[in-house]
Design brief:
Largest sheet: 7 strands, mixed
Bound molecules: thiamine diphosphate, 1-deoxy-D-xylulose-5-phosphate, magnesium ion
Shape: globular
Strand order of the largest sheet: 7-6-8-9-11-10-15
Number of strands: 17
Structural class: alpha/beta
CATH topology of the largest domain: Rossmann fold
CATH class of the largest domain: Alpha Beta
Length: 627
């Protein structure tokens, strides 16, 4: 049979494919996903699991007129392949290439930009009600995973949607997995829905009844509802006002296509429960969907292999070891993750201290307030959370933790640029949004050793403290075995030089030291954004002509702003150059190249300083009055 995929430049042709062609197409899409992800790295298991669903959706719905809204968006490679981006797949998640997530700027088929979870039902409801208000005849379909469904936001949207008569279809893609095995009562409930006789009965009912396409549609609908009534008590989703259908096999096009065709003609909010397998069709990913959730490049014939030489220790590993060591020393310590056990380095902690480990699901807001509750009772919670996902828990951090001055430690992983995931996942804002909160402190270790020490410093405080560290490895500085803290709120003079002082917050210390060699500049390693070591800062300012601040965080309101505020408060006038993340979103790509592209590597730092302050003339002459 001639391949179908190369002839498809958009989904219009596949609307006319027969079932056999759709099956062939699904096989080709699956191979295309595996082939490309094995070369580029990226999200694999979830994409292998959505192949048939994607084919069926583009077959049944008139996309992009009908809106497909994917949740998280890490499962949209089949969708990208079918919507004109197959040939760009080799550029996936690389600079200038296509994104690993849906982006409105990338394609008209990407109806809603996403990468943080649990937004799809809200956005699709907005689209469905907008269509209704404007008198446009279109469907809005939200496709949400069982993991993403655990977030409060998904339930806020269900609660709102259930009372409207609009063309909204919510598809729950239930693969019984989040990144790691799913947690919580909803998961238990979905497992019940999928279990035993009910699933078998519903599946057969679906096949015998739902295959009857319109014009027998009304009859089919009645039969289906009757059949459902016989085997299913009202589901949670029906209580929310949805018409619930399922569970059906999400890899079986013979179930998917007629079910979707029928649902398209029903009135009011519809809910379809499909069951899929993460990693479907690639045995290694089926067996270990966690490892293949977001693998780096690999040979599909062999699968992921351990590197021959031990890679450098990552900051995540430094945190994981610290957490276990501190837990062994202090029985009050409890560790919390909002569904990021592997990514946040909690695997060993869960094994060793299961009774002190809490995976709360994709529920960042709850994670923070839950920690506050634990702290109220004298426990010492450590919330391990990606900087970008803490954005979800901001009010909780202020209202539930900081105002009550509760001693919660926030271990902020993925601070700064993260690379291939791009702007949605960059930890760009935590310095700016944390340092303005009273009672909060914020530390930014320059390397692995300081990371361990500053975590100990944070844990020793009687108020909330965040410690931010980046994705991956740092300078490679060996961590001390003990748990000795570094002094609270104190930085260090790292290099003495002339005229220019570079005031560094975090891991950019190392490129700064290189730049400083060339410029003979002074370097301060500040370690803390808040409290700021004002004494060290002002002492240094007094003996220099110009100041450079450096951080891997948004410039606006960031650590550099804190330095300028401190100088203003002390009535010190001096030119200040602020280096950090600019006021624009930085797309995906290799993190080293991205940092270089915005001048945050050693050469870029040196060049920016030379451009601003010259190679030796007095700073006042270079930029009079600058601050
Ligand atoms: C707000 C937020 N928290 C955490 C994540 C990290 N994350 C990405 S995918 C995922 C699991 C999603 O599970 P599910 O929706 O079931 O999709 P599956 O991976 O099973 O296809 C998590 C926790 C995220 N993207 N957004
Ligand atoms: C889609 C998502 O949010 C996660 O899968 C994320 O891509 C993981 O990122 P890390 O690879 O940095 O853990
Ligand atoms: Mg899932």
């Amino acid at each position: 049979m001639a391949p179908l995929l190369p002839t498809l430049h958009d989904p219009s042709a596949l609307r006319h494919f027969d079932r056999a062609q759709l099956k062939q197409l699904a096989d080709e899409v699956r191979s295309c996903v595996l082939d490309n992800v094995s070369r580029t790295g990226g999200h694999l298991s979830s994409n292998l699991g959505t192949v048939e669903l994607t084919v069926a959706l583009h077959h049944v719905f008139n996309t992009p007129h009908d809106r497909l809204v994917w949740d998280v968006g890490h499962q949209t490679y089949p969708h990208k392949i079918l919507t004109g981006r197959r040939e760009r797949m080799p550029s996936l998640r690389q600079i200038g290439g296509i994104s690993g997530f849906p982006q409105r700027s990338e394609s008209e088929y990407d109806t809603f930009g996403t990468a943080h979870s649990s937004t799809s039902i809200s956005a699709a409801l907005g689209m469905a009600l907008a269509a209704k208000q404007k008198g446009e005849d279109r469907h809005a379909v939200a496709i949400i995973g069982d993991g993403a469904m655990t977030a409060g936001m998904a339930f806020e949207a269900l609660n709102n949607a259930g009372v409207y008569d609009c063309k909204l279809l919510v598809i729950l893609n239930d693969n019984d997995m989040s990144i790691s095995p799913p947690v919580g009562a909803l998961n238990r409930y979905l497992a019940q829905l999928m279990s035993g006789n009910f699933y078998a009965a519903a599946k057969n009912v679906g096949k015998s009844v739902l295959r009857a396409a319109p014009p027998l549609f009304e009859l089919a609908k009645r039969l289906e509802q009757h059949a459902k009534g016989m085997v299913v008590p009202a589901t949670l989703f029906e209580q929310f006002g949805f018409n619930y259908v399922g569970p059906i096999d999400g890899h079986d096009l013979d179930s998917l296509v007629p079910t979707l065709e029928n649902l398209k003609h029903l009135h009011g909010p519809q809910f379809l429960h499909v069951v899929t397998k993460k990693g479907q069709g690639y045995k290694l990913a089926e067996a270990d969907p966690v490892a293949y959730h977001g693998p780096t490049k690999f040979d599909p014939a062999i699968g992921l292999v351990k590197p021959a030489t031990a890679p450098k220790q990552t900051f995540t590993q430094v945190f994981g070891h610290w957490l276990c060591d501190m837990a062994a020393q202090d029985s009050r310590l409890v560790g919390i993750t909002p569904a990021m056990r592997e990514g946040s380095g909690l695997v060993e902690f869960e094994q060793r201290f299961p009774e002190r480990y809490y995976d709360v699901g994709i529920a960042e807001q709850h994670a923070v307030t839950f920690a506050a509750g634990l702290a109220c009772e004298g426990l010492k919670p450590v919330v391990a959370i990606y900087s970008t996902f803490l954005q979800r828990g901001y009010d909780q951090m202020i209202h539930d933790v900081a105002i009550q001055k509760l001693p919660v430690v926030f271990a902020l992983d993925r601070a700064g640029l993260v690379g291939a995931d791009g702007a949605t996942h960059a930890g760009a804002y935590d310095i700016a949004f944390i340092r303005c909160i009273p009672n909060m402190s914020l530390a930014c270790p320059a390397d692995e050793a300081e990371c361990r020490q500053l975590l100990s410093s944070a844990f020793a405080q009687d108020h909330p403290v965040a410690v931010r560290y980046p994705r991956g490895a740092g300078a490679g500085v060996a961590t001390p075995p003990g748990l000795e803290p570094l002094p609270f709120g104190k930085g260090e003079l790292r290099r003495s030089g002339q005229r220019i002082a570079i005031v560094v917050f975090g891991t950019l210390l190392y490129p700064a030291l290189k730049a400083a060699e060339a410029l003979d500049a002074t370097v301060l390693n500040m370690r803390w954004v808040k409290p700021l070591d004002v004494e060290l800062l002002l002492k240094t300012v007094a003996t220099h002509e110009c100041i450079v601040t450096l951080e891997e965080g948004a410039l606006m309101g960031g650590a550099g702003s804190a330095v300028i505020e401190a100088m203003q408060a002390a009535d010190v006038q001096m030119p200040v150059l602020q280096l950090g993340l600019p006021d624009r979103f930085i797309e995906h790509g290799d993190p080293g190249k991205l940092l270089a592209s915005i001048g945050l590597d050693a050469a870029g730092i040196e060049q920016s300083i030379l451009e601003r302050f010259g190679a030796g003339e007095p700073a006042g002459k270079t930029r009079p009055g600058a601050l």
